Amino acid sequence: MEYMKKQVQTYRTGKVITDQFYIDDDYNVPDVKSDVMRIILGEGMLDVEDMKVVENYIRVTGKMNFKVLYVTEEGESRLSSLEGRIPFEEMIYTEQVPEGMPFIKASNIDLTVTTIHSRKLNLKALVELQVSSDGMDDLEVTTDILSDAPLYKRYAAKQMLRMLTSKKDTYRIKEEVAISGTKENVGTLLWTDVTSRKLDTRLGTDEMLIQGELMLFCFYESLEGKTDWIEQVIPYEGRIECYGAQDNMYHQIYPELADVNIDVRMDEDGEMRLLGVEATLELRLIVYEEENEDVLEDVYSLDQTCIPRITEETFEKLLMQNHSKCKVIEQLSLPEIKDSMLQVCHSSGKIQLERTEVVDGGIQIEGVLHISFLYVKADDVIPFDTWQGMVPFSYLLESNETSSDMTYDLTYAVEQLSIGLLGSDEIEIKAVLAFNSFLKQPVRVSNIEEVDFEPVDMEEMERRPGIVGYIVQDGDMLWDLAKRYSTTVEGIMEVNGLESEQVKPGDKILIFKENISIL
């Protein structure tokens, strides 16, 4: 006897753990930097260097990189900036030891920078981490049994997601931007911001194609001491090798823009009017192939008693992969900056999800869009300032394929953001939020690992009636009736003149025990 088995590799993720902790530290202004009079803008970014599982804890270590834009105190007030890093270590408690490799699914930093005095700053950051774990399982299902003795077998068609590959990769972006003729030459970079927008990925033969945009903002001081800025969209596209991939497969992707570097370069005329932009798009990629497999569900023999050894296995099937967008439009009254805001230089936003819930028709998403913008104000001494606030949003990610037992994964990003002035103290916020969803449902399979055979109890067989008149009940199948009454589907169909195996409740049929001849 030979068992035909199919290997299916599945991808699994652990429970998402949300952890919050504070980073509170003082920072001495370097000697080469001017004294600090007032903070204009501060921003922090987490750089996770190592994650280790220690019993029921995940130890996360790394650095918080920060940058500060401030007004100098020495002589004539000017803008200056500084950068630094603060190491951190956090122990995240888990109820169960993660089975796979832990990873950071999302992170958010709310940084507040205050001056202790002109040479010392205090940095307080509320850090929120979403930590999960991932791994792979090699599962095996029996698709058939080959035997010399006649066996009657029933198969069940199952749709499964088979993981083709799971990998980490990087795509390096290198671009050069020329400053328009209306702008000043670059002397000193004061503040830079590069964000990834409109990222689109699709699979091809042995590759994944990438297309997206970088939104570049540079706030700088010219050689003559004038303050100016540029904001420009930088498109990019490329490919990453992914052996075995095909365009009809599915994929999940977790992107993160890292190692951003901007440097000033000289153009052909010898003027500092070029900006070199380099960044690394770090990707965690999972590729799936959808398979339809006929799994052996049950077996019996007329000559022997079959006793299947059954294990319950859980696979997954794809319900939906969706890319959707949510528009946010909000008008705000800002009396605190009335008559002082002249122009918005640059705006940035980040999404914080508060709640997601499966409802009829899709996934209900509730969250907050955090907004920050740098603006020009009517002040000859310090003509720049920032405003920070938040806008709540609610969005139904529509899906016709939802179930109570499904699992789903969301990645999200701010795709577009603009701030418009409506009056002396009113602004209009327009944003487009992109949500990528991957919905899966468990597929439970009663897998026959092996079949034991025992001799038929002849006394029991003789006690069974040779002919049975049967009224079909709801849920009955001819295969089940054939197994129950020791006959075959073909035998029942022949006796009752049936052209197909389909029967409905209330049908009256005769069932003859196999090898019983009727005179």
TrEMBL record:
Ranges for domain LysM: 468-511
Which InterPro entries does the UniProt record give? LysM, LysM_dom_sf, SipL_SPOCS_dom
PROSITE patterns, alphabetized: LYSM
Know the name of this protein? DUF3794 domain-containing protein
Organism expressing this protein natively: Extibacter muris
Identify the taxonomic lineage of the organism of origin: Bacteria, Bacillati, Bacillota, Clostridia, Lachnospirales
